[in-house]
Amino acid sequence: MKPPRLLRIIFTVVRAPSVVFLMALIARMRVLSQLLPDNPWRDFCRYSEPAHIAWALASGFGYSAPWPNTPIAATAQQPPVYPFLLAAVFKLAGSYSYLSLWIALSLNAVFSALTAVMMLRVGKRDFGTVAAVLAAWVWACWLYEAVVSIRLWESSLSALLLIIGIWLAPELANSLRASRWLLLGLLAGIAALTNTTLLAVFPFFWLWLWISYRRRGKSCSRMLLASIGICILTLVPWTVRNYEAFHRIMPIRDNFGLEFWIGQELGARPREVVPPDFPLSDPSDYNRLGEIAFMESRRQMALTFVRQHPREYLDMTIMRCIRYWTDPRGTPWPILSLLAWSGLGLALWQKGLDAALYVVVLIVFPPVYYITHTFPTYRHPVEAVMLLLAAYAAVTLVQTTAGRLFQTGLKGASTA
User: Fold this and answer.
1) CB neighbours of 2 closer than 8 A, spacing ≥ 6?
2) What is the pLDDT of residues 128-148, one digit of tens each?
């Protein structure tokens, strides 16, 4: 009787949200203690555009200057939530100080540890306890996720906001409580102001909710419009700020042309991280033209390349698509991505429309990186979802195989 009781105790412990949170936080703080550099500016902050904007905010220059050696002028290069969060940290503990970096990256670690807890909740509801525990513990203890999560960027917060959205939307499918619908709208607005790519995801969440109610002969139109309205109201102040700064309608940020151009430049220089005339390396064009004209010039350069070299651009796009799901090299991501897509197919087969939110995440979120450019860290906001689907596929495969082996054994015993 002891082994089964011991196994029950172990399983009770590993599925406890507090234990998962603690283990995820410990893993990230351990990585942080080993990777935090002696010179935060030279080795860490210099390459973070949100950090440079945060420095400008904390120094009283306003939301400006995304790169070093550029004019102190208004910018919309980054969405505002994470730079403002870093600015608060800089105000508290000093710009680019060792303590500020500790606080900022510790916040990222907390966001990532909370994501593990949300994975546990979402996974239990949608895929069963075993798959949920497996996915949450892989996220919590895998050093790759720990390292990526403490990057001085919005990725950890974006991953948390997305998994909260996936948890919240199905709750609304059976509830017309106004507070929850308004919360989804607020969440969508904050997510869009954190990572603009997430703005593409939440409209499909609303569409899924509308279809869910229509299939049951019910209506959620009033709550749906209220939720969308709250999202729009959340975006309006920043849109007004951008209009006052640049005299054009710009809901969140203005950097698509730059990212589009970077993709074509890196396609021609595959060994480089950024093009040689990227503002971080050479800000002369940015300083001469100003932000809006600079972004437009890069967009035109990228479009010219696409028109003149359509086949090359298609090849680059295909390669970016492959790299998005498989990079970095030497990691299990090719296998995990295959499992995630298999888990998505399995979920659609077994759950139908209930699995549509996962389809939205895997299909709607990545395309902007296919057509512009991609790095492994750009995938981080959806990796929690991918691990849930991969764990679901793996657990289903093991259970199915074990069941067949058991049946084969029974047949063999009955014929013996």
Assistant:
1) none
2) 999 999 999 999 999 999 999
Q: What is the pLDDT of residues 361-402, one digit of tens each?
A: 999 999 999 999 999 999 999 999 999 999 999 999 998 887
Residue 1 banded pLDDT, cuts 50, 70, 90: very low
Helices (H) and strands (E) in the chain, counts: 20, 0
Spell out the long-range contacts of 301-310 with Cβ–Cβ below 8 A and sequence spacing 24 or more: 301/261, 301/264, 302/257, 302/260, 302/261, 302/263, 302/264, 303/260, 305/264, 306/264
Q: Which residues contact 235 (CB under 8 A, 6 or more apart)?
A: 189, 192, 193, 251, 252
Q: How many CB atoms neighbour CB 47 within 10 A?
A: 16
Q: What is the DSSP string of 340-383?
A: HHHHHHHHHHHHGGGGHHHHHHHHHSTHHHHHS---GGGGHHHH
**3-class state of residue 255 by DSSP:** coil
Distances (CA, A) of 278 to 27, 124, 301, 305: 35, 45, 13, 17
Minimum mean pLDDT range among 164-168, 229-233, 280-284: 280-284
SS3 of residue 5 by DSSP: helix
Among 10-19, 197-206, 272-281, where is mean pLDDT lowest? 272-281
Contacts of 389 (CB under 8 A, 6+ apart): 339, 340, 341, 342, 343, 344, 347, 358, 362
Residue 409, number of CB atoms within 10 A of its CB:
10
**Domain boundaries along the sequence of the chain:** 157-246
Tokens of 129: 């306890």
Dmax (CA) of the chain = 86
Question: Contact at 8 Å (CB) between 140 and 14?
Answer: no
- CA distances in angstroms from 412 to 110, 403, 404, listed in the order given: 53, 14, 12
Cβ contact 146:111 at 8 Å? no
Distances in Å between the Cα of 295 and the Cα atoms of 120, 208, 231, 380 are 42, 35, 27, 26
List residues bridging with 64 in a β-sheet. Answer: 74
H, E, C per residue of 139-186: HHHCHHHHHHHCCCCCHHHHHHHHHHHHHHHHHHCCCCCHHHHHHHHH
Mean pLDDT over each residue of the chain, to the nearest integer = 92
Residue 288 CB neighbours (<10 A): 9
